[in-house]
Amino acid sequence: MKKAECPSCGSMVTMGSNTRMGQRLKCPNCRTELEVTWLDPFELDWIYDEDDYEDEEDYDD
Ligand SMILES: [Zn+2]
Question: Count of domains in the chain?
């Protein structure tokens, strides 16, 4: 079993051996939705909503 630290609460989250990059899971401790950002070593990060960056071309300086 692989483990990674939850970036939100710092507790260790256990992942299965077939975990893939980009896989989403919920921290069992703080219930934050997380994404697997690296496999060796395992790293978890918050899920960023990519919809916020859609066609935002604002060059009005
Ligand atoms: Zn957590």
Answer: 1
| Neighbour-count burial for 20-48, b at 16+ CB within 10 Å, e otherwise | eeeeebebeeeebebebbeeeebebeeee
Residue 60 in domain: no
Q: Which CATH number goes with the domain that contains 20?
A: 2.20.28.160
pLDDT in tens, the chain (61 residues): 789 999 999 999 998 889 999 999 999 999 999 999 999 999 999 998 766 555 556 666 6
Give 14 Cα–ligand 1 centroid separation in angstroms: 11
How far, in Å, from the CA of 8 to the mean position of ligand 1?
A: 5
8 in any annotated domain: yes
